[in-house]
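Practice record 12: protein with zinc ion.
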Amino acid sequence: MKATLTNYHTHTSYCDGRCQMRDHIRFAIDRGFTSLGFSSHAPLPFPTAWTMEWDRMDEYLAEFHRMRRTYGHRIELYIGLEIDYLDECHNPALPRFANLPLDYRIGSVHLLRDPEGRIVDADLPADKFKRMVEEHFDGDVREAVRQYYARSTAMLRHGGFDIVGHADKIHYNASYMRPGIMDEPWYDALVRSYFEDIARQGLQMEVNTKAYQELGVFYPDARYFSFLHDLGIRIQVNTDAHYPDRIDSGREAALHALRRAGYRHVMELHDGEWTEAEL
Ligand SMILES: [Zn+2]
Ligand SMILES: [Zn+2]
């Protein structure tokens, strides 16, 4: 089948999204999407401003089913979670996540631990990321990057998810602190060996277009698209929309870049099955 408009990485007011499921659905139908999935930030073992709490999980699932009854004849709707890899004890492989009736799970790394063991958010705007690294890593951005990759690799080892969320998202912030860091051999080697691990496990990756409109970058960066293609990694394009009008943001540009890199297919969910759709 030919590629259609799809998006499996969206957030609503169940976590830090700025709208209801219904709003995303209406925009998606209006733009001609065939398939849409929700991926709230899964609960962490402590409260945050951006994750859903366990006490809202039943309501999250119930609301999804209400939406599917209302809109399911106009668009395929799916329910997932974006689950954090925090450490050995909290990650997408937890039975509590595995037991949820979800269509898919996205595994992402947002959090690091500083040398004192304090949990720090690394998924920040560039200026705040810089302050975080200065405060918690003595300004050593290489240490933050190494730990980000150690955690990302540990996430692969534990498993429990289907799609690698915004791989190498740290690249923009790391480059802001240390221009040219992506061209440094140690950095490139970390990224490539992570992608090789992903390929070995047969996991899907997303090209995350959330920042494309403002920053002009994808996660992972487009420079790696042909490498991912050579590794045979299956890709889906997601916008990580927190607002309904971002449902399609950066998507077309990502598809072009993937085509230029040799991709002829992207992954779409249809009738509950991941399907290769022709670009
Ligand atoms: Zn994320
Ligand atoms: Zn997200």
